[in-house]
Design goal:
Layout lengths: L11 H28 L10 E6 L2 E6 L5 E3 L2 E3 L1 E3 L5 E3 L10 H12 L14
Antiparallel strand pairs: 1-2, 2-3, 3-4, 5-6
Length: 124
Protein backbone atom coordinates (compact mmCIF):
# COMPACT_ATOMS: atom_id res chain seq x y z
CA UNK A 1 0.00 0.00 0.00
CA UNK A 2 1.05 3.51 -0.79
CA UNK A 3 0.80 6.08 1.93
CA UNK A 4 0.92 9.80 1.38
CA UNK A 5 4.04 11.48 2.66
CA UNK A 6 3.58 13.30 5.91
CA UNK A 7 3.27 17.07 5.68
CA UNK A 8 6.46 18.85 6.55
CA UNK A 9 6.30 20.72 9.82
CA UNK A 10 6.02 24.48 9.59
CA UNK A 11 9.37 26.12 9.92
CA UNK A 12 10.21 29.65 10.82
CA UNK A 13 11.52 30.15 7.27
CA UNK A 14 8.22 29.02 5.66
CA UNK A 15 6.15 31.27 7.92
CA UNK A 16 8.35 34.30 7.19
CA UNK A 17 8.31 33.59 3.42
CA UNK A 18 4.49 33.41 3.45
CA UNK A 19 4.20 36.62 5.48
CA UNK A 20 6.66 38.44 3.21
CA UNK A 21 4.79 37.30 0.07
CA UNK A 22 1.47 38.45 1.53
CA UNK A 23 2.97 41.83 2.44
CA UNK A 24 4.40 42.31 -1.07
CA UNK A 25 1.04 41.44 -2.67
CA UNK A 26 -0.84 43.82 -0.34
CA UNK A 27 1.63 46.63 -1.01
CA UNK A 28 1.41 46.14 -4.78
CA UNK A 29 -2.39 46.15 -4.65
CA UNK A 30 -2.39 49.33 -2.56
CA UNK A 31 0.01 51.04 -4.97
CA UNK A 32 -1.93 50.03 -8.10
CA UNK A 33 -5.42 50.81 -6.77
CA UNK A 34 -5.34 54.58 -7.54
CA UNK A 35 -3.94 53.94 -11.02
CA UNK A 36 -6.61 51.40 -11.86
CA UNK A 37 -9.32 53.59 -10.37
CA UNK A 38 -8.21 56.57 -12.50
CA UNK A 39 -8.40 54.54 -15.73
CA UNK A 40 -12.14 53.98 -15.35
CA UNK A 41 -14.29 56.50 -17.23
CA UNK A 42 -15.92 58.98 -14.94
CA UNK A 43 -19.66 59.01 -14.90
CA UNK A 44 -21.50 62.28 -14.92
CA UNK A 45 -24.82 62.48 -13.22
CA UNK A 46 -26.38 64.79 -15.77
CA UNK A 47 -25.42 65.40 -19.38
CA UNK A 48 -24.43 68.88 -20.44
CA UNK A 49 -27.49 70.99 -21.23
CA UNK A 50 -28.05 71.80 -24.89
CA UNK A 51 -29.36 74.91 -26.59
CA UNK A 52 -31.54 73.64 -29.42
CA UNK A 53 -33.26 75.39 -32.27
CA UNK A 54 -34.51 74.85 -35.80
CA UNK A 55 -32.78 77.06 -38.32
CA UNK A 56 -33.78 76.94 -42.00
CA UNK A 57 -35.38 73.57 -41.45
CA UNK A 58 -32.30 72.03 -39.82
CA UNK A 59 -32.10 70.98 -36.18
CA UNK A 60 -29.15 72.60 -34.35
CA UNK A 61 -28.02 71.46 -30.89
CA UNK A 62 -25.15 73.18 -29.06
CA UNK A 63 -24.01 72.27 -25.55
CA UNK A 64 -23.68 75.28 -23.31
CA UNK A 65 -19.95 74.72 -22.87
CA UNK A 66 -19.53 75.12 -26.64
CA UNK A 67 -17.64 71.87 -27.05
CA UNK A 68 -20.25 69.91 -29.02
CA UNK A 69 -22.30 71.14 -31.96
CA UNK A 70 -24.72 68.91 -33.87
CA UNK A 71 -26.65 69.63 -37.04
CA UNK A 72 -29.51 67.18 -37.61
CA UNK A 73 -27.88 64.89 -35.04
CA UNK A 74 -24.52 64.79 -36.85
CA UNK A 75 -21.41 66.25 -35.19
CA UNK A 76 -19.85 69.42 -36.52
CA UNK A 77 -16.13 69.71 -35.74
CA UNK A 78 -15.69 72.94 -33.77
CA UNK A 79 -12.40 74.54 -32.75
CA UNK A 80 -11.91 77.28 -30.18
CA UNK A 81 -9.47 80.03 -31.12
CA UNK A 82 -7.11 81.75 -28.69
CA UNK A 83 -9.21 84.93 -28.78
CA UNK A 84 -12.31 83.00 -27.62
CA UNK A 85 -14.04 82.84 -31.00
CA UNK A 86 -14.99 79.61 -32.80
CA UNK A 87 -14.36 78.16 -36.23
CA UNK A 88 -15.31 74.92 -37.97
CA UNK A 89 -14.25 72.82 -40.91
CA UNK A 90 -17.22 74.11 -42.90
CA UNK A 91 -16.18 77.77 -42.79
CA UNK A 92 -12.65 77.72 -41.49
CA UNK A 93 -11.70 81.14 -42.88
CA UNK A 94 -14.25 82.93 -40.70
CA UNK A 95 -14.57 82.99 -36.93
CA UNK A 96 -17.76 83.42 -34.90
CA UNK A 97 -18.39 84.70 -31.40
CA UNK A 98 -20.68 81.83 -30.28
CA UNK A 99 -21.04 78.17 -31.27
CA UNK A 100 -24.69 78.78 -32.15
CA UNK A 101 -23.71 81.54 -34.58
CA UNK A 102 -21.12 79.16 -36.04
CA UNK A 103 -23.74 76.42 -36.47
CA UNK A 104 -26.13 78.78 -38.26
CA UNK A 105 -23.37 79.84 -40.66
CA UNK A 106 -22.55 76.15 -41.27
CA UNK A 107 -26.21 75.48 -42.13
CA UNK A 108 -26.13 78.42 -44.56
CA UNK A 109 -22.99 77.00 -46.18
CA UNK A 110 -24.23 73.40 -46.27
CA UNK A 111 -27.58 74.16 -47.86
CA UNK A 112 -29.33 70.78 -48.25
CA UNK A 113 -26.12 68.74 -47.89
CA UNK A 114 -25.77 66.55 -44.79
CA UNK A 115 -22.69 66.41 -42.62
CA UNK A 116 -20.68 63.17 -42.68
CA UNK A 117 -21.54 60.72 -39.89
CA UNK A 118 -17.93 60.34 -38.76
CA UNK A 119 -16.22 63.47 -37.59
CA UNK A 120 -12.95 64.11 -39.44
CA UNK A 121 -9.75 63.71 -37.48
CA UNK A 122 -6.29 65.05 -38.12
CA UNK A 123 -3.21 63.00 -38.80
CA UNK A 124 -5.06 59.86 -39.88
Amino acid sequence: MFTAPAAAPLTRRAVLRTAFTAAVLAGTAAALAPVLRARRPRQTLTPAPFAEETYRGRHIAVDLAGTAVRIDGRPLHVMRRADGSYLSGINHFQSFTTPLELARAAVDELGTTQLALAAPHHGG
